[in-house]
Amino acid sequence: LVKKTYEYAKKELPEKIFNHSMHVYYYGAAIVNTHFPHMSSMLETYFLTCLLHNIGTSDTNLSGTRMSFEFYGAYKALKFLTQNEAPKDQAEAIAEAIIRHADLGDTGTITSLGQLIQLSTVFDNVGLNAHLVHADTIASVVAAFPRNKWSPAFAACMREEMALKPWCHTTANEDNGLCADVEKNWAMEPYE
């Protein structure tokens, strides 16, 4: 399942988005290994989640639906995982985490899988929680999977989605200045 998902993501995602997915995995794995070792048993499911979490932002998917990228991405991921015989609980947990990965509010509860992808996604996109990942880890990850100006590309992608779909979920975060925060990602600026 991991191999099929990796190949699917590599084929479907532009290089910048694929590399971001790998950043999110490696930063999350580092967070688990350093701060939450009791969560290490979920790293395979987390890897699948990372590979698929931005499937809704590919050019085809972003403009091919009226759904917000997180929701359409979760739908596509659930469909792919189910067709490839992922256990139902695992496939649904991944879809839930994809839907919730951009819910950056401070109310409610979330699964450990969802929280981990939130932590590592906002770290790669905005630079939040930089104290959780060592600078050597960042350098190694970016050397293997270059950012290639990911911050401005992602901000442009979010603006494109909001222009195409003024009702999309991204607008909830843009009210808090998400695109500007992505563009001024101080933690990743040296690696852009």
UniProtKB/TrEMBL annotation:
Q: Which InterPro entries match?
A: Cyanamide_hydratase_HD, HD_domain
User: Coiled-coil region(s) at which residues?
Assistant: none
Database matches in PROSITE patterns = HD
HD domain: residues covered: 17-126
Would you tell me the protein name for this molecule?
Cyanamide hydratase
Q: Which organism is it from?
A: Corynespora cassiicola Philippines
Instruction: Show the taxonomic lineage.
Output: Eukaryota, Fungi, Dikarya, Ascomycota, Pezizomycotina
